[in-house]
Amino acid sequence: MGGKISMAALLLVLAANLLQSTYGATYTVGDSTGWIIPAGNADLYDNWADNKNFSVGDVLVFNFTTGQHNVAEVTEAAYDACSVANTISTQSSGPARITLNRTGEHYFICAFPSHCSSGQKLSVEVRNGTSNSTAPGTPGTTAPGTPGTTPGANSASALVATLSPFFLMSVALVLLC
Questions:
Q1: pTM of the model
Q2: Three-class SS string for 31-44?
Q3: Dihedral, CA atoms, 120, 144, 126, 32, nearest 10 degrees?
């Protein structure tokens, strides 16, 4: 009987690990301010991102009015220059949900004329692992478990983060049998 309880506990831990690594936290960019031209505070989005640790699988929600703003993922050079010449992806309907699907720096700008140069741009660093930012229920985050859309191709790190729990669960099942 004790062996069955231990095995059930192991499977429960593995299932929890699977859910944690499959879904990430959801962040509302700019919190209640949303995705706008920051009036008098060009560092609004840099300051917003400063206390957050983004992970593969997290979702950024850009709240904006369709037709007044958009969100374009761009390269670092395009971000620095506020250039829309070679965007990676652009979402024109608000609110836009973007899943962070790889580690490294991600750069976002509003592609409307003069919006980026007025401070409507965001840079985030994405790491592997679980999100570790503000406590659940605070503005700008929601509990893990809200899947989003992925703007680009899956990366190897996202694949590893998704498949690792499956591998661990498979090993546990083999050991059970």
A1: 0.64
A2: HHHCCCCCCCCCCH
A3: 20
